[in-house]
């Protein structure tokens, strides 16, 4: 990409200053924010050190702040010792043992409340169970669970004993699960008999068995939570019921005091090439930005009830469900199921029933619910809401305005938070009591986050609204530490573009006259489906793994609800399928990709041709494929194509 290629078509001029009443009781008022920015600008390391000392409990205080000696493998606070689970739970018990930590609602309507004391006891019992099963500090544990409190308990228990968890989203297939287990070299898998979603049972144990049968040689035990109670098979010696293991365990478990840099978790995410990357996060640095952003951006206060709708299988469910809000001693809502059960009012009913005050979801969910009209939200009392947030992809101004008017009743600020799996926590976002918002912009970087938009040579773009590469110019505590088992890929992906100087986010962006950031999309071949990243390569590999497929190329096209939809151009072995055969083949390939990766990766559109458009040097013309997928007129010069005739086939015209 060159910055010349990026032109901005979206100019949005509306501004929404924070309401006076909101600012009056907000944690950060404009003057506080100014002071934080000034501190970070005057003394970058001192700023972070002060935050780390005041926001985290240290067993052994740190004396070093940022260590750049192994750059870009930066380390933070690395002679300090702490424990993430202690910081999320134990330190609140003095004053808040009875405070509700988790309000859980199952899809069928079952509700359970867990106090901080109860959470402590359950986490300790499960941590003791893990130890009794032989799990030690540094072991990798894969968690493949429904969205229940036990998923959070499992994560917290791993953190408590220094085991490194890797949560795999329950919507991923057995193959994806197996690949992640093997890449991480996990010794344990924690799963459930199933989960409830969309009125059906998600067969997590069956998928786990399939993964095991396909080969997960490092796994010694599979722990199984009973959630649905339906029949599943248990393998003697390998599989153990959660309740059998936990029953006799003590409700005390001394935390393992780990080095600040000890890996807390791996989370796999898609890149443009090759297999998913195991993004490795640290303990202290990660938790620091997690807790700070819950306080700064979500303004969490003692009486708040915070609901982040993300699954723990994604980074959002780590930082804004399982760790950050607990470290901030907040009350969180966890909902197991789909937003559409029993109808499109479920989210709003949950907000009313549990008096949710801070609500955080993805633009794709907002658009889907917006499509169903205002009657659903209008049926419920949403007066408890005081702050709304979005994450995962650019939000279109129309959806922003609907969220603002119909959900927030024009009272609630909206925080559009830009960040990534790799950054661990919000990077660019409004501070709700201090920053005016503009629909579609994530506004300005948070204190201590030195984000910028630069050109191909790494120079700051000073011209307003001119697009370029989004970079972060200084290391920050919660940044990824490496790609698990692949330091070179870490360097190549995030640091090589600008000679190791800047962290390359992989997004393009522009800054407007006020210095507000507007995210314009990805610069690599990554598709953002419903706020989740998928590498085009991954979908292509899944397609060519099908015996009938010789070649495949995958691009995206805009989608009204999902943000982007996947379009696959497929070349089959033998005759090109047409008519009924093509229809059957499309169905088969969609199911196949669902099996290989997960339902989220199923192409919306599959087209067959006798060849892919290639240049004479053999490169697939991806830009041409995108034009075709968007249904736009072809303006590129296709006379250099090796095989011009296929273009009509790919357009569906031949
Ligand atoms: O392209 C950006 C988009 O999502 C990518 C990160 O995806 P992932 O690691 O899966 O994390 C999603 C949740 C943090 C980014 O590179 N993205 C995320 N938030 C926004 C966004 N694009 C525009 N606006 C946002 N608020």
Query: How much helical structure, as a percent, in the residues?
Result: 25-40%
CATH class of the domain at 526-650: Alpha Beta
Oligomer designation: single chain
* CATH third-level topology of the domain at 526-650: GMP Synthetase, Chain A, domain 3
State the CATH architecture of the domain at 526-650.
Answer: 2-Layer Sandwich
Structural class: alpha/beta
Strand order across the biggest sheet? 12-11-8-6-7-14-15-23
Q: What small ligands are held by the chains?
A: adenosine-5'-monophosphate-propyl ester
Give the overall silhouette: globular
- Main beta sheet strand tally, sense and closure: 8 strands, mixed
Give the number of helices: 21
Radius of gyration: 24 Å
Task: Walk me through the structure.
A hairpin with a 2-residue loop joins strand 26 and strand 27. Helices cover 31% and strands 21% of the residues. The protein contains 21 helices and 30 strands. Residues 1-8 have low confidence and may be disordered. The structure holds adenosine-5'-monophosphate-propyl ester. Adenosine-5'-monophosphate-propyl ester (PRX) binds at residues 269, 315-316, 391-394, 416-421, 442, 505-507, 519, 522, 528, 531-533.
